[in-house]
Structures are given as C-alpha cells and as structure tokens.
Amino acid sequence: MTVLVFLDPVHPAGRLADASSPTILATDQGVTRGDGVFESLLAVNGVPRKMQAHLDRLALSARTMDLRIPGAGEWQAAIATALTAYAAGGEQCVVKLISTRGPEGANSPTSWVTVTPVSPSVAAQRENGLAVVLLERGYDSDLAARAPWLLMGAKTLSYAVNMAALRHAHSVGADDVIFTSNDELVLEGPTSSVLLAHISDDSGIPVKRLITPHLDTGILPGTTQGALFAAARESGWELGYGPVTPADLLDADAVWLISSLRLLAPVNTIDGQEIGNAETRAALTAELSALLAATE
Ligand code: PLP
C-alpha cells in the first residue's frame, strides 16, 4: 500500500492522490534530470521519528542546489495527512519527502509525501547483519570543499550511482557497500552512514568509543548518526569523527551501517573478513539499538 499526498497551496493540509495513477508531468526536472531533493524517515505507530532533523536536512539540501521548496509547516501538514490516511498500515512505515525543480519553465517545485511499508529486507538486515564490500567512490576526501557544484553532502534525487553500487555488491554476493575515497578514507554506504566501535584500547584496557567518518569528506550528515551520538554521549560513550581508514574498520570491535530506516545493521564481514566476533556484534547492536530507540 502506498499513500500519496501532494503539497499544494490550494490544499493547506496536502492533497491526497491515487499513487497507482500517473501523476508527475513527463517534463518534470525531477524525472528528466534527477533534479530535486528527498528525505526518507521512519514513522513508528504513526509518529515520524527525527522529523525536525529531516526537515532541516531537506531545507539544507534544497539551499545547496538553489531550489525553493515548501516550508516546514507545509511538510508537517502533508506528513500528518499521509500518516492518517495510512493508519491501518502496521506499526512501522516509511515516509518519503520529495521535492523536484518541477516542469521545465514552470519555476515551481513539485513536492509530495509518500507513506509505504518497511521492506522485509530492511528488517532482515537489522536481524542478520551484512556482508559488505569496499568500493571506490572516485574522488578525494577533500573534494567537497573545492567543488560545491557537485552537491556533495546534499540528499539529491541523483541516486543512480548509489543504486548501481548496490547492484554491483549483490552481483558479487555481498549485501551492501562502503565507499572509499581516492585517498583511501572511508566515506559512507550508498544509503547509510558508517559507524565503528571499540570496546578496548591498544593495550586491552576497556573503553567505549564510537567513531564515524568526518563530515568534511562530503558525506551526507546522517540524522541517525546525530541522534545516536547524542544518546551515546549521555550513557558514557566517547565519540569521535574520522578520518577512518579501511584498516580502522577491520580493526574495530564492531561496524554498522546506520540509517533512518534500517536503524543499526551490523556488518559481519568486509571484503570477506569478519569484523570482531558475533557475540560482541550482537551485544553492542542490542545496546546501541536500545539507546537509539529511546530517542525521539
Ligand atoms: N548517507 C547516505 C548516502 C544516505 O542515503 C543515507 C540515508 O538514506 C544516510 C547516509 C543516512 O542518513 P539518515 O541516518 O539520516 O537516514
């Protein structure tokens, strides 16, 4: 089941539409050029999680590409309408916010919200963990600052490369991808942030340390990573931002791909090499998942 609500000045609460009928013009630049922005968020029992963080990032992505999109209030109204229409649909669902540059020449964005079920494969990833391959992203980790026109760090609709990387991973028997830069730093997954944990230091002394790649590398600032870091700090974890190398991942006690929909998916292997051990992965995943679940 898909619920579809367009943001429409004539309908302040959003305009419900039939998701099974064609509704986007063939000249919409979101369709013809992938020119637009989006967000995917999880709603639990009809309540969207981290709504403000997602609306803030949507606005930032739009600003990065000079796209004028509706304000937070209009998005919130449309999300509420969509979640009400979806009400019968189970305890967790996916809310997608999309805004495109609209039809050629119209100078007016096309904006809509969809609500759909969480795919069963997402639940399986949380449960069973992932086999991951490292793939080259093809740029240096300092490119974002030099080349703002590449829109790095913005969540644009141009995800074809990310999806191709996932298909490549599947074709070699893996589940997911961690991208690396030309200067061999860890970046992010095609649809996730990377997180690693240490529970002892080099001399074996117990620590609780979480590390994620530095945002200067042009990766998307993850709302899940942000929420988890805030919660983990409260419960005594030491937090750090990269640089993270592939060797750091292999050396970690646990590595996860994290995102709004999958939450924490433990990485079992990277390029065939096991990360930590199953018991530690499971215990840390349970601990951090509980911290994340307790956030708004
Ligand atoms: N990095 C990329 C490229 C993503 O597409 C996503 C989410 O889809 C993330 C990171 C994680 O972001 P969030 O935790 O806000 O879902």
Protein traits:
296 residues, alpha+beta, eight-stranded mixed β-sheet, 9 helices, 14 strands, globular, binds pyridoxal-5'-phosphate
Number of strands: 14
Structural class: alpha+beta
- Radius of gyration computed on alpha carbons: 20 Å
Associated small molecules: pyridoxal-5'-phosphate
Strand content: 25-35%
Number of helices: 9
The unreliable regions are none
Mean pLDDT, rounded to whole units? 95
The rounded distance between the terminal residues' Cα atoms is 26 Å
Strand count, sense and barrel status of the largest sheet are: 8 strands, mixed
Element pattern in H and E: EEHEEHHEEHEHHEEEHEHEEEH
Name the shape in a single word: globular
Helical percent range? 25-40%
Written account of the structure:
There is one protein chain. This protein has 9 helices and 14 strands. The protein is an alpha+beta fold and 296 residues long. The strands form 2 sheets. Strands 7, 8, 9, 10, 11, 12, 13 and 14 form an 8-stranded mixed beta sheet that branches. Strands 2-1-6-5-3-4 form a 6-stranded antiparallel beta sheet. It starts with a strand and ends with a helix. The model has no long low-confidence stretch (mean pLDDT 95).
Describe the structure in brief.
With 296 residues, the chain is of the alpha+beta class.
